[in-house]
């Protein structure tokens, strides 16, 4: 495959890391032209609008406007690669149409893989789908034809206490015979669980499909609670959660939702 000439922008609030990535890209992709190096998401968006680079390397955590917020504004007008020190941002990266993500400190072999994907995407831009198509297809499958107002609170009995659980605090929901087990993050981030009578399928229809995804016939997970995903040889996977010991199964029917991870 012939190497495609391209332009890029690098956004990172740490000057040494910007220079290091620029130096590594020069070795991995000599024809790539770095048009700008910026310190935050706001400057990234400004320079993108002015220079229109084909690729944006965005640090996730930056002061002011983050890389995620910048990606939302840039959208599909550029190939997005997130750079982060924490792999729990992987799912969030793909939510915003990122082609790939790199973990700091960036390794040369991992960067070479990313460069190969970028070159292939740019070479086949006319025939390949938009970078955000995976998310669009997922959202379309999860949204009902007439989208109702998403559920915000769930009432559950915890011991002798009737508790109102904020849906945003829920990490996952698991079917338990005729009941549904709710696992949430309570005050101070302390994990909690409760059992309610509403079937999982009825709850799923009321949840925000951009955050809650069914990954198994008996499990629905909050994408924001995922730390990382481990694939198995039998075309299944396991989801590990931030701050929780539970490991959630991903069945063959749903593992394709994480195909680009």
Concise structural overview:
It is built from seven helices and 15 strands. The chain is an alpha/beta fold and 261 residues long. It folds into two domains: 126 residues, Rossmann fold, CATH 3.40.50; 106 residues, LytTr DNA-binding domain (OB fold (Dihydrolipoamide Acetyltransferase, E2P)).
Structure write-up:
By secondary structure, the chain is of the alpha/beta class. It has two domains: 6-131, Response regulator (Rossmann fold, 3-Layer(aba) Sandwich); 153-258, OB fold (Dihydrolipoamide Acetyltransferase, E2P) (Beta Barrel), CATH 2.40.50.1020. The longest helix is centred in the middle third of the chain and has 16 residues, at 108-123. It has helices at 15-28, 41-51, 67-74, 90-95, 108-123, 133-142, 200-204; strands at residues 6-11, 32-38, 55-59, 79-84, 100-103, 153-158, 161-166, 170-176, 179-185, 191-196, 212-216, 219-222, 226-231, 237-241, 247-250. A five-stranded parallel β-sheet has the order 2-1-3-4-5, with helices on both faces. It has a five-stranded antiparallel β-sheet with strand order 10-9-8-12-11, with no helix packed on it. The protein has a three-stranded antiparallel β-sheet with strand order 13-14-15, with no helix packed on it. Helix 2 (41-51) runs parallel beside helix 3. It is elongated, with a radius of gyration of 20 Å. It starts with 5 loop residues before the first strand and ends in an 11-residue tail after the last strand. Helices cover 27% and strands 32% of the residues.
